[in-house]
Amino acid sequence: VSRPKLQAPRGTQDVLPEHAADRLALEAAARGILEGAGYARIETPAFEATELFARGVGASTDIVQKEMYTFEDAGGRSLTLRPEGTAPVCRAYLEHGMHKAPQPVKLWYLSSFFRYERAQAGRYRQFWQVGAEAIGSDDPAVDAETITLLHALLTELGVRDVALRLGSLGRPATRATYRELLVGHLRAHEDLLSDDVRERIDLNPLRAFDADHAGTRQVMASAPLLVDHLAPEDAEHFAEVRARLDVAGIDHEVDPTLVRGLDYYTRTVFEFTSGVLGAQSAVGGGGRYDGLIEQLGGPPTPGIGWAAGVERILLGAEPRPQPRALCDLYVAGTTTAAFALATEARRAGLGVQLELAGRSEKGRLKAAARAGALWTALVHDDTGAIELRDMESGEQEPVESASAVVAQVIRGRHIA
Ligand code: ATP
Ligand code: MG
């Protein structure tokens, strides 16, 4: 009977040992930059009540309309694998009373997310994001700072050909007025629009700026722009954000058509792209979401955040050389005494590998060299005698006991 070969589901991938160094470097850089700026790490559940995303991401978004992995559990609850991190973090902020802590509360995460999308290079059904959220302040310095931190992360990781686009969506009242203007414009040119855009004129007219469709693009070329209709306080806020990016030396281009995929954005929105990524050029982006916490049932609370795709960052950066695993000592023996030696050495804090394949005494030395061991303890099967070999010089001498081996390796390690 032949069984079909089992493979990882479409759009998912194994993060193999050879990818570990890059991922570790990314995590270390994110931790250094974000925790250095006072962000604390958070991890929320991989699935949430479906309603959180319906309310927190927005019913008209691609994410909610097409991309969610939603299922009913055995208890009849509707749950959804998290497609993004902002709504869960805001839920946690409320659930744990973080609004009583000094504001803004600054949180970061590195987690995997799930979207049912057309799988292609740089677009997966399970992918990782590193993200940051600053909740509880509407100061433009927060906007500029958080953008600066993402910029620093992309720079430190060597993402090539990075550009920053920035826009402002204003606040709900401004957007409502502008929205009518835009809907009017779309209605006036309805016959030129793609079906997709036409069907969603009332639901999400802003999305039309995102379209690839030629007719739609033609209509959008003459569309009214929100940046030209901002309320004075919003225009001022935007100018303050830009002034801070300027003093930080961060080049940016104002893109009045920048549309982010989530409904809850207010005021600042931004996106970093990399020129080496091809069609999926967005490495990361985010924006201000001053209405979201209230939308989730909390008190009116401003917030801003971003998320960047781990796979796209790594695709956009030069790959790093594979570092060797740290092996202080290879215990080349198969007896219980050899096992005891390995255990004692590990308890002393050494990186220890043990002969596990029953190799001949000659084969064990080769294995030790392959493991990159600094020292090898040859524990003879018959006599139990131990010899310690310095793998760099090839010098080898008898050692009395396991403790002497450990002491010698610790001394030797410090000298090196
Ligand atoms: P896109 O325009 O590429 O669909 P998005 O606007 O849906 O991106 P966000 O929700 O803002 O993306 O997510 C932030 C970042 O997460 C993106 O800039 C991208 O780097 C990454 N990302 C989003 N969706 C995926 C995916 N399906 N696979 C891999 N990375 C993704
Ligand atoms: Mg998307």
How would you describe this structure to a colleague?
This protein has 416 residues and is of the alpha+beta class. It is built from 14 helices and 16 strands. It has helices at 20-36, 50-56, 62-67, 86-95, 140-156, 172-188, 195-199, 214-221, 232-247, 292-295, 310-316, 336-347, 361-370, 402-415; strands spanning 40-41, 47-49, 70-72, 78-81, 105-114, 126-135, 162-168, 253-254, 266-274, 282-288, 303-309, 329-332, 352-354, 375-379, 386-390, 396-399. Residues 84, 115, 117, 122-124, 127, 129, 261, 280, 282-285, 307-309, 311-312 line the site of adenosine-5'-triphosphate. Adenosine-5'-triphosphate is lined by residues 84, 115, 117, 122-124, 127, 129, 261, 280, 282-285, 307-309, 311-312.
Q: Estimate percent helicity.
A: 25-40%
Which percent band covers the strand fraction?
15-25%
- The SSE string, one letter per element, is HEEHHEEHEEHEHHHHEEEHEHEHEHEEEH
Bound heterogens, unique = adenosine-5'-triphosphate, magnesium ion
User: Could you list the spans in which at least 5 consecutive residues all have pLDDT below 50?
Assistant: none
For the residues shown, what is the average pLDDT?
Answer: 94
| End-to-end Cα distance | 57 Å
Structural class: alpha+beta
Number of helices: 14
DSSP strand count: 16
Shape: elongated
Largest sheet: 8 strands, mixed
Question: Which strand order do you get reading across the main beta sheet?
Answer: 1-5-6-11-10-9-7-8
User: What is the radius of gyration?
Assistant: 28 Å
